[in-house]
Amino acid sequence: MGKRIILALLAGLILSSVVSAEETKSVRATRKWVQQNGHVILQDFTRLLSMPNVAANRKDIRKNAEYISNLFQKRGFDMQLLELEEANPIVYGEYKVPGAIRTLCFYVHYDGQPVDPTKWTHGPFNPVLYSGAMDKGGKEIALPGKGDKIDPEWRIYGRSAGDDKAPIITILNAVDALQSSKIGFTSNIKLFFEGEEEAGSTNLKAHLLKHKDLLDDIDIWLFCDGPVHQSRRPQLVFGVRGVTGMEVTVYGATRALHSGHYGNWAPVPGQMLARLIASMKNEDGKVLIDNFYDTVEPLSEFERLELAKIPNVDIQLKNELGLAFTEGEGRTINERLLLPSLTIKGLASGNVGKKARNVIPNTATTAIGVRLVKGNDPEDMLDRVESHIRKQGYHIVYTEPDMETRLKYRKIAKVDRRRSGYIASRTSMQEPNAKAIINAVQNFVEDELILMPALGGSLPLYLFTDMLKKPAIIVPVANHDNNQHAANENLRIANLWYGIDLMGVIMTMPR
Amino acid sequence: MGKRIILALLAGLILSSVVSAEETKSVRATRKWVQQNGHVILQDFTRLLSMPNVAANRKDIRKNAEYISNLFQKRGFDMQLLELEEANPIVYGEYKVPGAIRTLCFYVHYDGQPVDPTKWTHGPFNPVLYSGAMDKGGKEIALPGKGDKIDPEWRIYGRSAGDDKAPIITILNAVDALQSSKIGFTSNIKLFFEGEEEAGSTNLKAHLLKHKDLLDDIDIWLFCDGPVHQSRRPQLVFGVRGVTGMEVTVYGATRALHSGHYGNWAPVPGQMLARLIASMKNEDGKVLIDNFYDTVEPLSEFERLELAKIPNVDIQLKNELGLAFTEGEGRTINERLLLPSLTIKGLASGNVGKKARNVIPNTATTAIGVRLVKGNDPEDMLDRVESHIRKQGYHIVYTEPDMETRLKYRKIAKVDRRRSGYIASRTSMQEPNAKAIINAVQNFVEDELILMPALGGSLPLYLFTDMLKKPAIIVPVANHDNNQHAANENLRIANLWYGIDLMGVIMTMPR
Predict the structure, then answer these.
(1) Residue B21 gets which letter from DSSP?
(2) Predicted complex ipTM
(3) Does domain A3-240+427-507 have CATH number 2.170.270.10?
(4) A402 burial type by CB count under 10 A (0-12 exposed, 13-18 middle, 19+ buried)
(5) What is the pTM of this model?
(6) Of A476, B99, B174, B346, which has the fewest CB atoms closer than 10 Å, so is most exposed?
(7) Nearest chain A alpha carbon to B457
(8) Which member of A255, A358, A458 has the closest CB to residue B345?
């Protein structure tokens, strides 16, 4: 077992029993609250998880919105549902405090991924407590009563347990804990809970534009979504990659040809496409498209230093995934995800397996995925891919080539750029409010806080950072092994407790 | 319109009204027979085509076998059905003549391709006469009566009209014509009509081995199957390519990975496979696998000369198929099909189009087709492909790789060689009986006879040439545009008349 894996396991224990020398007033308050009311918190969480919340079911969604809105209303928040035609409502709230240092806004989404109940042990909306991870021998147990000891390794199973109802319960209980200890917030607190994130956030931009006036005074957005680091160490994330892509189809004859009667004479689209794709990247994973890396905005010295401190999970991941090598070997996944990527998401030409026939197919198609980092423009990057295709001798078309075109050009590629995607987002770790959060969180966690410049995945964070021009930080709560998007989604209780401490610390952080 | 196309069109006319200076006695007899009995021939053909003959329907097939057997029995052939358990019978016949120069055997198959009646204008087993090709404005017409003029451009539509019942009617009427003119055969005539060619000839080898004694005295096999040349000029074909192939799967992680969280770090199977396929062939269509062309048995000087005389159909084909270039450009399709080929029949990895997802698929697979020429051994050729894959740094497995294998080897390719295929077949144009046939046919056709060293497609002719060690020539009758294997299969009447002349000439040819 590698040193790093041992560290990671220790980190798991640390997160569940963190007692820092710098323990603040707020942490004392949230811990006391959890100790006295843990059983009620689990009951409340269970109740919230039992409410079906698939974005397409408008009635269910509205019940969730009203229920959540009411919970915060009771605690003195000024709540409203922000409406937009044909959209699920945003649960919006404000809590203003006199002499506030800043206004911060918690983003959460209260909808969950669609469900296939047949794959769930207990059904997606029938939350059940387990003594540990179900796939590691955990057993179903009853909810605890008052005074019962609660093991932080317990897990609650149910849709949205990790993604993304846990933050709602943590914010709510942080508020309760601070109020019961009579500790005031240092910032104005806003809530912005989306109801269709898992349906693609198709109305998020319109919501933000329509309610811009309400949001103008927000100094920093806190995205309470996604999991903490695989090492179980707490982390803050300062950006995401953007995403774009295209489909490319190359052409042989107008119809599939008999591979005997024409093989060795007719052009073979699968062969042509293979040559084209091979020209795009070298064996080491470097993209060979001209200027592909030119617009990448480099990390600051501070971010570089933080990056170097992030636990190396490469060996663990390679072992888990059965990989004896990786692209750009010698550089960690943490570094590699800070560059734009080009991946073959799909290949199709004729058939393989039982359906394979003795033909030369008439086309071959690839779906190319491109992930973007700060500085990359989606359309500009696709232009570079197109230029590369042209450089390989292809005539590019955007619709099916007609006979005249076919007879004129030796090599024809159809490019489909319909899904144009969106840019990456990154907030500086040295932005003043970001710095305040880093300090506050670092002060209460025992282990070193992970500061991740950006996730490899994509979220439309640019709507906040580039459209609204506000800093935005991802503040995750859930365990990385929460089965997000799948059946038997769950939350580890230690992460729930961590989240309550975290939210309390953020609500009370100094300048 | 190119000169060659004009030639091709003229050739079409020639075939339908061939009157040679060298007209033989047999041709006089068959032409007279056709002139007097054309309407009966079309009735007989129609009756034969109305009998359903899909190989899987055993009862239908046996009715065909018995009906055909009876037709030849009546003409003095000694007929029997050769049986094999679980197989359709071979319609076998012999006609011995005193002082015969040789024994020749006509191979025909009396089963037809499976049918989808919904795609047929009149149903597959409801033969109908047309005044021309249906897709070129031909109209349905009644069968002619005695004395009615028959246009050789008429067509009969029905399953097996071209593939492969036409030769049965031509042989039958050649026999009738010669008998009515009291012209004797110069060779012993044997008939070997297969009943499951379109079902893959799975029992052909067993039939040949079981009945080897019956077949031992055959000097040459005549394969009456397939179409004449695209130029409509008559042709004899002396071989076919063999066929083999394999599927190759390359591996990434043990599961599909999120293209954001892992893209630019995890190996991309589609990219790896593209590189592997690109390494196999250059842009000009030359296979780059070591020694791929080494075992090709070269053509003789005679065959080379004949090859050079074959009409060049490349421009016509390129125009038809919408191709601005071909592999090995500068060399004709006729030449290119005399080399082994390597084609990508299928590519599959993840999905494209609406099903495309933001993942790095865990595998990518290609179905590779290999056509073989005389001298190539299927297993040996696949060994060469495997060696090439190994040379690209791959560890080859034959079953799914386990975790230990995955973690040990950087690049893993699974090779599936289950369909091992079979060798090519070629009969020398200078083999004495082959020469006799060439001379006889050349003498009666006006235009120059095309002597094709081998077809690009594959048939298990090696069973005759390499297993039974007998010469075998393909003697096609059908028009090339007969819609073989598809709906609205048809035969052009000119080709029927040509076939009757042809069979008569072969049955009466001198040494």
Answers:
(1) T
(2) 0.88
(3) no
(4) exposed
(5) 0.87
(6) B99
(7) A260
(8) A358
